Fold this protein.
Amino acid sequence: MKSSEVFTTKAKKAVTAGIVTLLAAVAILVVDEELNSLRGGFVDSRTGSRLLAKNGRGLSLDLGGGDCEYKEPMPVVPTEIDFHKTLLAGFPSGDKRMAYVQMEALTGLPSKDDWDFVFNGYSNAPFIKTNYPHPSGTWSWGKEADQVALVVQYIRRSMVEYSDISWYISFEKSYNEDRKKVEELYGTRNDFDKFYVWRDAHVLQEIYKYGWYIDFWMENGLRRDPFSHQVIDADYFEVWSKPEPIKSERDKVTICHRTSSKKNPWVELEVSASAVKAHMDHGDYYGTCDGIPDDAPVAESDTPALVHDHSASYDSHCAEVSGTCKPVIVISSDKLRDSKYGPAETTLIGNILKSNEKMAKWVISNETWSCIWDKVIANNEGPMTFDDRNLAEDPNFSAFMLEEMEGEVTRLVDKYKAAPWTSDANAQRLVSLLSEHLALLTAEIADVVSGRRVLSKKDIFGPRERKAILG
């Protein structure tokens, strides 16, 4: 069993003596199959809900003949149970939620957010979802993960959903209150005017980070610059994954940073004054990008942040995963929500869970997996997702922004369809998914350029377009 010593004693003591006794009783039922079958599972006397069914798992029920009944997963699990834990990694959006609700329904076991470990202490939940190394995530679970599932979503959709998540969560009161707010607001969306403010300030940066995020996990934690995608050292990587907050207007400094984009080779960033030296060491320019030619070299410096020996720049956290940071499966949240492909995607998830004996006994019968998808996705019996929002219209992006999305996705496709990735099944699945996304982007760009999709002034994005049209 894994140790939870990385978590504080204080956090563990937050569990009351009564709950500890309850969980110990549940653990006995899991270990003692005979006793468990005699008692028909364990029922929480406080709520009357069954925590563990007779076969050692719960809560979704196999009704026979492929039929099922969906119920919410148990809220907590005994620390004594040894799970083969899955880390659900995905760019910050609603994509991981689509995946973990399937895992919960297939096993009756709960998932936890990376920030839950920070604010609420240790949890033995077998499914951990994270945005790491994106600044909105944190590696908080220590050595608790055994395998990684990479969740990939259409980049355009991810940008809109990340904006909504940024609106939901403010941390103005407390983490738990903000989490409650997220659950309450999942069926609504950000005000369009607020979305446009967020989009103009952040979306170009997040487009590049989308590809950076995928690279990190596919390459087993290789540290890269999120914009130029050059390999960098640990200190500079932390500048990106744990950026210093800008404390005031006087602390805000504008820099010009190199990207990998052919159409937008430089991007302006606002950083804390304390981070300026690290960026200058990387070859950035101080101030705005005005006057810097597209083909300008990086600023003269020793660029100590750049690393030529790639073996020296892997995130040490990846050694804490009992497998590696490379994903054992690539999950498509877009296909999960699709009536044609959804049940097959659920089957992929079920198979990866059943492939380990520690988890296989918790997974409901294969015959019910299509039913589970129907209940959770088609019939909407699971927790709320972004699909619950009633959108009167979809926010627009200009040709400039869509082309930057297209460029970043094309970079990923070109990379993972070539050597040394040609024999990697997950890389080829990634290429297949991203190629479908490229087709959607190409079609929308054609609509915008041709005028079939008319944009308003609010829809115009990009420093060049904004200056040319809005002045």
In short: The CA atoms of residues 187 and 389 lie 4 Å apart. The longest helix spans residues 192-218.
